[in-house]
Design brief:
Layout lengths: L2 H30 L4 H24 L3 H61 L3 H30 L1 H30 L4 H42 L5 H11 L8 H13 L3 H30 L3 H15 L3 H17 L7
Helix pairs in contact: 1-11, 2-3, 2-5, 3-4, 6-7, 6-9, 6-11, 7-8, 8-9, 10-11
Amino acid sequence: MNHVTKSFLIRTIKFVLFWIVIGLMIYLIGHYIHLFLPFILAFTMTAAINPLKNWFMRKFRMPVGLSVLTAMVVELGGMGAIIALLISRFIREIQDIYIHWPFYSRYISGLLTTWLNKIETMYLKLPPDYVETVRKVVNEFLNSFPNFLTAGISVAVAIPELIIVIVIALVATYFMAKGSTRYISDFVRIFPQEWRESLIELGRDFARAFSGFIKAELIVFLITLACSIIGLILFHAKYAIILGTITGIFGILPVLGVGIILIPWAAIALILGNNILALELVFLTVLISALRHIIEPKILGDNIGLDPLFVLISMYIGLAATGIIGLILGPFILIAYKSLQKAGVFHDL
């Protein structure tokens, strides 16, 4: 075997092994991420408050500890108050749906039965057995729907456990934001002297890119959430908070986004004869989708310097590999790869 062939084989094996290790890491992180959730939240919150913390230190000559506490109260406290109000309204709307569900169930069942009879009579002449099967499926769905509401209420009951996670994350955020320089210095000392400068630069580049990604996605999510809730409130839609929140959360998903909720809702409104609401929901879908397509590439490009196409691909692969967590994990791996590439780690691969 000549030198060129041997070198090519070695580089190929190293390249394949590298991506096998990365794939294994994605799998493990995706399936055991709950164990590190408080500290992942802490890292994310630290990245969010650092700019304000640094501004307080420069502008008002605050000590590090006081600037961290002030930034946490301003940013996290304000966001926490908004989230608490939304959760309170969210729970009230779930309870209202649960109380009135027997009426909604009878109404929807009767409506679907009427439409099935119309379809059977006017168009398709469906066999009676088929119509009866559809009715059974609809009734089973309607009977099981309260279970989904009960599950939602059980999530609300689990809030004390979530509070513990948040408290741990807040404490960890304080220590991370206050002593980040010391922690980085202690970590770097583990490695040989000749590696330290490169590791520090790699860490800075990665931290800038990751905090930029979190900032960009948070901005896009908040804009989508705000547009969804405000739009539904302006349209006088019932349960605007709960449906707007669900719509905003689904807006995180690439391509389909808010259309997953709003388009079927518009179709149902059209069937019920509420043409104005149907048009309003379609308009809201188009508005939010257009707004996202305009601002998301610019925000991502400005904050992390990644091509939106590669971000979309990484989000899809992450979603397919590990579920919803992969929506964040995929871009996270992409950012890490770009940082390592910039540091020259893959020069010999």
